[in-house]
Amino acid sequence: MYQQMRESPDQRGDPRYATLIQSHLLWAGASQPATIQNISMYGALLNCKRLPPVGTRVSIVAEGLEIVGTAIWTGPDRCGVLFDREIEPLDIMAERPVRTQDMVLVRTIAVH
User: Fold this and answer.
1) What are the helix (H) ranges across 1-112?
2) How far apart are CA 22 and CA 34, in angstroms?
3) Which of 6, 62, 81, 109 is the most buried (most CB within 10 A)?
């Protein structure tokens, strides 16, 4: 279940960047349009209608980005993907829509 996060730094240690990157989420022969809501060196939060099961190997494809990872959690219309390798998020975000602070809703989840 989601929990509302107080205004405090991200506890994962690596900075996350809020964005609105249109992409496709691919897994097991499925292709689903998705929006990358935020991105870091190690993963991303995606918003999409159909979600892969937790533990599924996925690919995220967008202009200037093609990365493989694993779906590590799912929620209503959202999933978290842990990348197989580090990326430089600022390179991915160059000249793309970025969400302003008033558009950001930060949530945390508990993974068991």
Assistant:
1) 89-93
2) 6
3) 81
